[in-house]
């Protein structure tokens, strides 16, 4: 048997063959029963929500607070465990294990790799919340009470500013990227080192054994499809809201549900073109373009904004984040219910619902990295970039707000970014760039998500027929439209939390499974075992 550096090894710890349960008819190559069940449930959901929008609105309006108020401690505690797990791996001997074997080489350079990480992982979220969240937390901290992080700092402008930035960075730094990292590492390791299919079920092989190819594995993959689709739809909905708000702010185009639906439809169409182009020609090029545009916008705001305050803020906010890290991570005995359940719990559920999508996408582009290099790059570097991003955009907005400008505070969430840019030079140009960034992040997220869902529902095949990717990209847009029509952003958030909840539990077992697999690999690499048995690898 032979293997190329960009392929999964031809030998495996199991006799299971990728695609052996697949149905190949009418030009399709779909896993049975993961694809039929997933597709049927999604189609039924879309039909129900469109036919009975009132029921859907009431259901999602009840769902989010029901889960967040009951299980907030579970989400927060799980997030803490993921961060600790990643940091332990970095300093442990297991960090020397290389994804794909000791001779594997990275397929993508650092720039292309980082670009795809950010475009898939947080692009739309950073644009949507980069201004709105720091300003919201600052205002809440000034007022004090349960809606403020750690009950706020009433009347103390500087303390409220530091707390608002620390509370924001907490949501975008170590914790979310640790959630992504544990999933991506597990998928990459078990696929590239043990020769298992690139699906969520493979990550549980040390715990399930060959039962991973039966119903326990089917259930895991089906949940992963739902989580990916609804988590992605949440981000697409946010992106559509912000793009529509920006077009209204900039050009006076009516902002409403019709605009959101039209935007989602048009951008999903662009995503379909990217899907057909494939990973290298589609996602990577769009990701790199967006990374350059985001960097240009970041540098512009830094240079024309309150530059010296922002320089001080990067260091000061990092210190504030470090100082408040333990109190903000504490899942028990807190009084800030509005912040803890309304923000943190939603975020962690959102990241967890996105984790199959982002984790699998990161895994697909991370072959050849050591575990230590992988976690350092996926965890630490994005944390640094997130601190800089939130400081520049949020810090500029706070300076404008504290200076007496009330437009940002008074604006809707999706328009706060454009209100902030409106106080700087070249506002028309930078606001337009902001809209382009949101749209392209929208396209890359939809594109990447359809590739990932298609891989799961094709039984781990990474070269499944294009029509299947078109099907999933289309339904990502339909689900986003359906959720917006059936309750707006509250419905989007409720769907993300509902799918993130089971994944909070699954991911805890995933950490255990990954540790067992890495420990065994550290003792004797799987490929060496195969060579000892006479395989040519």
Automatic annotation (TrEMBL):
Belongs to the BCCT transporter (TC 2.A.15) family. Its main location: membrane. It is found in: Cell membrane. It is a multi-pass membrane protein. Keywords: Cell membrane, Membrane, Transmembrane, Transmembrane helix, Transport. It holds the Pfam family BCCT. This is BCCT family transporter. InterPro entries: BCCT_transptr (IPR000060). One of its GO terms (cellular component) is plasma membrane. GO terms for molecular function: transmembrane transporter activity. The chain crosses the membrane at residues 34-53, 73-95, 107-129, 177-198, 219-238, 258-279, 291-311, 345-362, 374-392, 426-444, 470-489, 495-515. NCBIfam families: bcct (TIGR00842).
């Amino acid at each position: 048997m032979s293997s190329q550096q960009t392929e999964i090894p031809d030998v495996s710890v199991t006799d299971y063959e990728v695609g052996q349960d697949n149905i190949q008819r009418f030009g399709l190559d779909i896993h049975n029963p993961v694809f039929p069940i997933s597709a049927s449930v999604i189609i039924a959901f879309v039909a129900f929500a469109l036919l009975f929008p009132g029921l859907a609105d009431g259901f999602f309006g009840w769902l989010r607070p029901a889960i967040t108020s009951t299980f907030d401690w579970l989400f927060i505690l799980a997030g803490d465990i993921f961060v600790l797990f990643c940091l332990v791996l970095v300093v442990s001997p297991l960090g020397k294990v290389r994804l794909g074997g000791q001779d594997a080489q990275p397929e993508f350079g650092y720039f292309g790799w980082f670009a795809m990480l950010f475009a898939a992982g947080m692009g739309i979220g950073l644009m949507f919340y980069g201004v709105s969240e720091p300003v919201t937390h600052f205002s809440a901290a000034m007022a004090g009470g349960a809606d403020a992080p750690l009950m706020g700092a009433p009347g103390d402008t500087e303390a409220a500013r530091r707390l608002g930035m620390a509370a924001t960075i907490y949501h975008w730094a170590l914790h979310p990227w640790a959630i992504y990292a544990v999933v991506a590492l597990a998928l990459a390791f078990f696929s590239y080192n043990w020769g298992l299919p690139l699906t969520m079920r493979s990550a549980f092989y040390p715990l399930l054994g060959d039962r991973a190819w039966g119903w326990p594995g089917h259930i895991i993959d089906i949940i992963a499809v739902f989580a990916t689709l609804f988590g992605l739809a949440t981000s697409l909905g946010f992106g559509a809201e912000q793009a529509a708000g920006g077009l209204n702010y900039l050009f006076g185009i009516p902002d409403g549900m019709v605009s959101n639906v039209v935007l989602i439809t048009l951008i999903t169409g662009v995503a379909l073109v990217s899907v057909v182009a494939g990973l290298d020609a589609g996602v990577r090029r769009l990701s790199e373009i967006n990374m350059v545009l985001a960097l240009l916008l970041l540098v512009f705001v830094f240079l024309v904004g309150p530059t010296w305050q922002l320089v001080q803020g990067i260091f000061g906010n990092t210190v504030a984040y470090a100082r408040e890290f333990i109190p903000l991570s504490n899942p028990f005995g807190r009084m800030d219910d509005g912040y803890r359940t309304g923000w943190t719990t939603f975020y962690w559920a959102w990241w967890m619902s996105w984790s199959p999508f982002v984790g699998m996408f990161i895994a697909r582009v991370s072959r050849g990295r050591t575990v230590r290099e992988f976690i350092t790059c996926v965890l630490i570097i994005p944390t640094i970039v997130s601190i800089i991003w939130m400081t520049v955009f949020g810090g500029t907005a706070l300076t404008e707000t504290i200076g007496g400008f009330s437009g940002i505070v008074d604006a809707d969430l999706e328009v706060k970014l454009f209100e902030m840019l409106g106080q700087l030079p070249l506002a028309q140009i930078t606001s337009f760039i902001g809209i382009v960034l949101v749209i392209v992040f929208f396209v890359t997220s939809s594109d990447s998500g359809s590739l990932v869902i298609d891989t799961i529902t094709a039984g781990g095949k990474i070269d499944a027929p294009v029509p299947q990717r078109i099907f999933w990209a289309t339904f990502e847009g339909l689900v986003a439209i359906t959720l917006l029509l059936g309750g707006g952003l509250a419905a989007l958030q409720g769907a993300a939390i509902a799918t993130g909840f089971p994944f909070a539990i699954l991911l805890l077992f995933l950490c255990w499974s990954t540790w067992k697999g890495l420990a065994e690999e550290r003792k004797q690499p799987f490929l060496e075992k195969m060579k000892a048995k006479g395989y040519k690898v």
